[in-house]
Amino acid sequence: MTPAEFKRRRRQLMRMMGLNSIAILPSAPVAVRNRDVDYHYRSDSDFYYLTGFPEPEAVAVLIPGRKQAEYVLFCRERDKKREMWDGSRAGQEGACEQYAADDSFPIGDLNDILPRMLEQCERVYYAMGCNPELDKQLGEWVNSLRNASRSGLHGPL
User: Fold this and answer.
1) What pTM does this model have?
2) Which of 11, 52, 85, 141 could form a disulfide with 6 if both were Cys (CB 3.0 to 4.6 A apart)?
């Protein structure tokens, strides 16, 4: 599959979403088989269909019409020691160069960056129940934006 096909798929979804919306797609978590062995990693189908990104611990964000970047990928940073055990990582540079992300940030920065992206959006597209930790965080972010509406912030409806 070529990067152009994944880009076409993202454009089609963003066209259907419309402006002032955001789609948040987490990758599947790593499944532990036993104490020190993981199952062979398989990415979440929706995530992979739109990104082609084969790594765990990643979140794709699509924001149609956003000037800075419509497709943002949060993923693991390059780490030579971890790559010896887990295999190579694309890192932020690879996310942009190999997987055509408009911008990429370390997954550790998700809590700082994603809530600010939500401020500009009226609709959020997200599949609840697939990632309990992200479900909780997203609920907290949306609720804090709603509570800040008195100060002029307009978050998701």
Assistant:
1) 0.89
2) 52
What ranges in 24-131 are assigned the alpha helix state H?
Answer: 45-51, 80-86, 91-97, 110-118
Kindly list the structural domains of the chain, giving each domain's residue range(s) and its CATH number in brackets, ordered by start.
3-151 (3.40.350.10)
Cα distance between residue 110 and residue 59, in whole Å = 8
How many Cα atoms occupy the beta-carbon half-sphere of 97 within 13 Å?
Answer: 6
Dist. CA 91–CA 76, nearest whole Å: 6
Q: Does 87 score more than 90 pLDDT?
A: no
In this structure, of 10-14, 86-90, 107-111, the range with the lowest mean pLDDT score is 86-90
* pLDDT tens digits, one per residue of 96-140: 999 999 999 999 999 999 999 998 888 999 999 888 999 999 989
Q: Which helix (H) or strand (E) holds 25?
A: strand 21-26
Q: How far is CA 119 from CA 83, 95, 96, in A?
A: 35, 24, 24
